[in-house]
Amino acid sequence: MTVDVHTHLVPKGWPDLAAACGGEGWPWLRVDSERAAMIMVGETEFRPVGPQAWDTAVRRADMDADGIDLQVVSPTPVFFGYDRPAAQAVKLARIFNDRTLETLAGDERFVPFCQVPLQDPDAACAELDRCLDAGHVGVEIGNHVGDKDLDDAGIVAFLKHCAETGTPVLVHPWDMPGGPRLDRWMARWLTGMPAETHLSIIAMILGGAFDVLPESLRICFAHGGGSFAFWLGRLENAWNRRADIVRGCSEHPPSHYLDRFFVDTVVFESAPLRLLVDTLGEDRVLVGSDYPYPLGERPVGEVVRKSGFLTVEQQQKLLATNAMRYLGRS
Asked: What is the pTM of this model?
């Protein structure tokens, strides 16, 4: 059995968001043909997408080709709307969460994750509860809301609610800084995404979030946790040598918290996968792909199956066992 915990959806046919939510400059889908469309943000082209993004028959065919039994389906982060007034973001979340369930149509091979208006923790909790009642299983959140990272009191309150409701959380980097040095070669995705994810794990550790959150919280960081595993030694050294600055609100050294979160396998090569397993442990790494986007892994799970260092039992943990525990199904 293989479970992919990191995929995205772009539903077709959502309403005019300016009319439905208020405001301007919303994302919309320019449909160029039956098999090609472009996500637009206002008048700017953001990302081309194909039928894999909305056609469940195409998704199932790709899952069959890659040997995937279950696929967690999350929003595409450009639709989060965290920079909008909360009232607009609530309407936005409702639209996309409902369209996700309509698109997936109750197919048991798909595990729907919702989005929430994270800039308003009370509204985020309310939308999560509505979605759980409607059929969503988990929630995807961005790694920050403006200048607020995951140790912000409001976001921590939302994560406590996720723990209380038994809701798995996928943290996805988004809204990476741009500029002349980062707008070339997709550098925001190649360097910014790993850095953003690394920063948010550090924030949860040094900001004291893990110290106040229940250990029952099941939270996974996309893209292998960014650069966190590679630089854990540097963080640990700084925590010990510059306690006056680095320790923040954390009660323990960074290595103490390695069993508090999961990461996915979107690292593409055996060497970084070995680093993840050696650093976080074989029980904390889950198969992910970033499907259907071109920077994702295909065939899904190949980095695990061809790793060369994992035993059959360890492979099965990464391919499915850990994911089922993360999803609360074991």
From this structure: 0.95
